[in-house]
Every structure is written in C-alpha cells, then in structure tokens.
Write the structure tokens for this entry.
Amino acid sequence: MPEGTRTPPRTRRPSGSAAPDNGGDPIFRPLDFRNLTVKNRLFRSSISGRIDNYDGSGTQARVNWEERFAAGGVGAIISAHSPVDVRGRVLPNYAFCDDDDKIPFWRAVGEACHRHGCAFILQISHSGRQQDIPGVENAGKMRIGVGSRTDAFHGFENRKMTSREIAEVVDQFGQAARRAKEAGLDGVEIHACNGYLFTQYLSPAINRRTDAYGGSLRNRARLLIEVMESVRTSVGDGYHVQVKLTGTDHNDAMLPWADAGSTIEDTIQVAKWCEEAGADGIHVSTGGWFPHPFNPPGDFPVDEILKNYNAMIPFGTHVLRNYLFFRSPLGPLFTRRWNRSRGDRPIEGIALEDAARIKAEVGIPVIVAGGFQTASVIRDAIASGQVDGVTMARPLMANPDLPQQFAAGRERAERPCSYCNRCLLNVLTNPLGCYDVDRFDGDHDAMMRSVMAFYRPDGFAERVSEPAAPPAAR
C-alpha cells in the first residue's frame, strides 16, 4: 500500500450504540454502526444457492430470494459469497462482483430490499483452495491459496499464490467494494472465515509460508489487513465495511491428529487490527472449513449427502474416499462422530462466547451467527451486552417472516428449523430451501412448492413462512 493511504484508526465509541430506548424490545432497537443504521438487530446471514447465471451475472430469482427475507422483517441482509474473481468462486451459478457490468444487477437487488426498509450488505469473497466445484472456466487450473497443503477433509489441492497474485487479489477486493458502493448497496462484508482464502492465511494449521505472509500472526493477517485497507481506500471513509471472522476455527474437530488452528486470542487480535484498518463491524462465526460440525451446527444426514456429494468427486482427492465411506454400513458412524465433536456446546448461540470476548476488546459493533431462532435467547444476548445483533440463515429459510413473528410476541416459530442441514447438503446440485419434509407433514409436493417459490417473477410474495399446522394441532 503506498505511503499515506492507510486509513487512520477510528476514535473509539461504545459499540452498537442505538437510538434512544423507547421501552421496546431490545431486538427491535436500531443498531448504529459508524456509517450505517440498521432498523433492528436481526440480520439474514450469508446464504444462497446456485440460482444465478453460470457466467456470474444475476437473475430475477436471486432478486426474489433476497426480497423474500427483506419482506419478512430482517433489518439487514448479508449476501451469499460474491466472488471477486472466477478463480475464487466456490460454486458455479453465484453472482459475481468482478466487473462493472455486474453493478446494475446488484443495484436491482438493493432496491428490492430497500422497498422493505432492509439494508443490503454485499459479502465479497475468494475461495482460495476451498472451491467445491471449480467449473469449466477453471478446468486444468490448480486452485490458488496460501500454499501447497491439501485440505484434510475433502482433499482440495492448491498452489502457493505468487506476490503478483496476492497484489491482484488485494486490488480485486477493493474494486468489488467500489462496485457495491456504486450500486447503492449499504455496505460490504469481507468474508474472512469458514475455511476460505483468509482462513487459510490466518490459520497456523494451514499457513506454512516463510515469506511476509507466513509465520507470526501479524504476517498471517497481512493479506486480510491489506485487503481491508484496499477496500477502505476504494470506498472512502464514509461507507460501511465489516469483516466476518472465525472466533475459534476448531480445525481438529473431526480429525484428532490435525493441528488446532486459530485460537480466540488470535482472532481478538486480528479483530483489533481490522478495526484499526477501518472496519465498522465484526461478524463472528466458528468452524475451520465448510460445512463443519460447528458451522452449521446440527445433523449430517448421510442419506442426503449421498444424493449430492458425488458431484465433488473429480475435485478433491479425498472426496471419493469419503463418498464410499458414507455409502458403507459405517456411514452412520460419521454422523454420530459429527454430532459428538460438538461436545456440550449448544446449537443456538454456538459462537456467542467467542463473540462476547471479541466485543469486550473492540470499539465497533459485533454481530454473531449460530442457529438463532428463539426470541428470548437473542434478546438476552443483546440485552446482556454480549453482542449487538445476531445473524440467521437456516431458521429464516424455514420461516422467512420470523422477525415479524418475534415482533408479534412469539417466542419461536410454530414449526422451527430442525437443524437437519438437509438444506445445505442439497446446495451442491439443487435449489436452496427447506428440505425437512416433516415440517410439511410428509407432503413432498408442498415442500417443493416452498423451495421453488422464489423462481416465480413474484416469488417473494409467494413465500411460505411456515407450513400450516394440521387441524388437530391448531
């Protein structure tokens, strides 16, 4: 970064300060970031499926998908990962932010959400080695990442990024943020967790570089801080920028012989450096890759993974091994191991302790992911000062109008998310949605009508907040 372009550290103020308390529910008090006010403390977390065009352009289905949640009452939506370059794409059919020709699409998405008073934050990302299905554009090209170490779970291989490639990625993030601002979106989130590119640099279990980007924590964080500074330089001092970090990455959760990875102490320090570089907020998650027993916490139904996981066989050296294991009589043992590795940690609020520790050390708002869908749990987390807001994904897929239900005084949806994770195990090949047929009284056709609703031109209006209860249960 040229001398003199670094944004000076912010003057600290109490994180998450809100509009004056009018005696209302803490969940529905506005949340003031430095450059953005969100109408309540509920965020739709980063989630989407293969619903855009193969070339990275967006579709009306994506507009409908996002507007479905805006109409349901969340204060802000954080988009699914939007790659800054095709080589950083996790899956095909996700909308990019790699070129100015994407600006009109993202403007349309933002306008659709703004009609409901909902902010829209674009999550800008790069997969590094964690690229599930590279797509034909990347055929024959080795993934680029922190180095040559192969992902222990799927066997994703990569080669070490060169100095030139690092500089290109730093600039790509800055340009992506500029596009988000020009599109009229309310901010950007740098996706620096869950096994993707920045995790690979930050984690001592993965990063074995011996140059300026490896070794000490400061060196391992260098790429993220350079990206943070590039983004801030591109959008100026008055635009919202937040960073999503893994509190504790639990790299050894399923593999006892693996190194533990980044600690919460590491992440606290990285969060402080992000704040100094100009971050307006920190979004806390957990888990060292995706999917992970801690993210998203819940079940790992082998019957569902067998329908979709084979799509990844050509792209990871361990995928065929895993697939054959899942198909064998030992497959259910994996599910039990998956669930046991979480120990006694709760599903709802699994990352809350880490988030609270980070919030105690920074002067900017902190929000947290982790299966939230109970009003009292969310309310207590905010009122106690542990966090300033929560992000939700699966519970909102099950009940897109959950914020409105909370506002009406309901503690939980009548048919809450079951944390079965069938939604995310379908995402490799099928549209994203709730695939827990039990929530639809075993009616597969009703389930599919709910899943497919956003493909309609007016799909968001056709949303199904929760299946109708059978007459006996009313």
